[in-house]
């Protein structure tokens, strides 16, 4: 049940991010779904988003019967850019969903400018990016809509859960109604959902949020150890943030140069055999069975990243010796 802990958690989220309003919900996917309804997306509208993301980004577009239009990512920060999105805008385009992938901030000011000029709604899929920074401000600061996830794999967790951060008072009231059957002050205003966060989840979130700085600082130190170990090794490329931005390092992604003698699949198999829980890189949504009508489109950078990158263990409290063990195993690896 939703109660005072949810309110308290929402208040703490606004304090932490600088957003005016926060609406806690049952998942990051629910946050995306409600955001698209609240922003007035209609059937057949086109929404541009990356394919290199978790499938929920595009599923939410389908929940409102709109059409995802997949955009390729940059090679270096694994995010979409305003320039590549602009080329995909048509008369039917209504919104852009940017994803702060792996916690790496997407070009927010570039997208705000583009969306303002083209009169498009900008939704930030910030599922991975609570605590990431853009010019010294937290993701969600000054956003129209930024969707957070508290899934266990995220920077802080509530078991399952999510939140929408917004600076827009109208969105705030509509989102609060939509998460709870469209109900407000004795009336049902629209068809809503049961996407409420419970007080039990919020109580966990409050405790987790009190540790977020410690968690992110520790992750940044681990990422620095990985970066320093791999940045001058020509077999690898480290993923870099745009200038004046900083990731929360929800995930650490290592790109393996396809021209080198090793490949992502073999190195992953080797690390897993050594008991190191490395994971494959992000999958492309447009290659999935449930998106079969998109299977043949070409997004070369997304495919390259998906095929040639792996995610290395990063967590709080990971010991320096554990990071060094992983680095040594990767350095030792030969085909
Ligand atoms: C980019 C992205 N968007 C959306 C989601 C969905 O969040 P949730 O699992 O809380 O529904 C996730 C994560 O799981 C994600 O990584």
- Assign the CATH architecture of the largest domain: 3-Layer(aba) Sandwich
Instruction: Name the shape in a single word.
Output: globular
**Going across the major beta sheet, what is the strand order?**
1-9-8-5-4-2-3
Q: Helix content range of the residues, please?
A: 25-40%
CATH superfamily of the largest domain: Type I PLP-dependent aspartate aminotransferase-like (Major domain)
H/E series, N to C? HEHEHEHEHEEEEEHEEHHEEEHEHEH
Question: Could you walk me through the main structural features you see in this protein, from its secondary elements to its overall organization?
Answer:
There is one protein chain. The chain has helices at residues 4-17, 28-38, 56-63, 82-86, 108-118, 169-178, 199-209, 212-230, 264-273, 300-308, 320-332; strands spanning 21-25, 46-50, 67-71, 93-99, 121-125, 133-134, 137-138, 146-149, 162-166, 183-184, 187-188, 236-238, 245-246, 252-256, 279-280, 309-312. The chain has 335 residues and is α/β, with parallel strands linked by helices. The protein has two domains: 4-209, Aspartate Aminotransferase, domain 2, CATH 3.40.640; 212-332, Aspartate Aminotransferase, domain 1 (Alpha-Beta Complex), CATH 3.90.1150. A seven-stranded mixed β-sheet has the order 1-9-8-5-4-2-3, with helices on both faces. The protein has a four-stranded antiparallel β-sheet with strand order 12-14-16-15. The chain has a three-stranded antiparallel β-sheet with strand order 7-6-13, with no helix packed on it. Pyridoxal-5'-phosphate (PLP) binds next to helix 2 and helix 3.
